[in-house]
Write a structure and sequence with these properties.
This protein is an alpha+beta fold and 211 residues long. The protein has seven helices and eight strands. It has a single domain, classed as L-fuculose-1-phosphate Aldolase, CATH 3.40.225. β7 and β8 form a beta hairpin. It is globular, with a radius of gyration of 17 Å. Bound molecules: zinc ion (ZN).
Length: 211
Amino acid sequence: MNEDELRADIVKYGALLYGRGLAHGSAGNLSVRLDDGTILVTPTNSSLGFLTAEQISKVSIDGTHIAGDPPSKEAFFHLAVYEERPAAKAIVHLHSTHAVAVSCLCHADSFDVLPPLTAYQIMRIGRLPLVPYYRPGDRKLAEAVRGLAGEHKAMLLANHGPIVSGSSLQKAVHAYEELEETAKLFFLVGDRPLSRLTCEAIADLNATFPG
Ligand SMILES: [Zn+2]
C-alpha cells in the first residue's frame, strides 16, 4: 500500500473502531509504518471517529514531526514497539472498556494477565503481559514497553489500555477486537470453574500458526 492508501486506511479503521464503541472521545491512537521507515500516527486531541487523511501526522522513527498535525502524545510508545518489532507495520492502542477493566485489576502473574480461553485468543494475541503504570506522557512508559515489545505482539498498560501490533492495520485491528472480546469473556465467566486451554493445546496452536 502507498502512503495515500494507508492514510485512507487509518481514517476507515478509526471510524470503524469509534462506531463500534471501542474508541471514545479523543482517546486512543492508530499508527502504520511506511516502507521508508517513517510512521503515520493519529494526531493529538483527535477523535478516531472524525479523522481526515490530510491531518494524520507523519513522524520519523526518532519522533521528529515531519508533516500533518502534531502527533499523539502517546506516539512515543508506538515508536518503541516499531523499533523492537521489525515485522510490525501497524499498531492499535485504545481505551476500550473491558480491556481497560482488566488493566485495573491486581494480577498475580503480570506476565500473563488473561487465562487462555479460546484458540483465536492464543493465535491473535498470545500471552498478554502487564506494563507497569506511568502517568500519561512519561517517557519511562516507552522504555517499559520497549522491554516487552520484542516478545509480545500485545501488551496491556496498567490502569490504561492495550497496545496491539500487526503486520497490517487490518490484522492489528482484528487482534485488538479479539482482545476486547476475550476481556469481555473473562468477566462473563467470572468466578465460575474455568476450562482453560491446556499447555499442549497452546503449544500446538503456536506451532501450527506461528507469528
Ligand atoms: Zn492511551
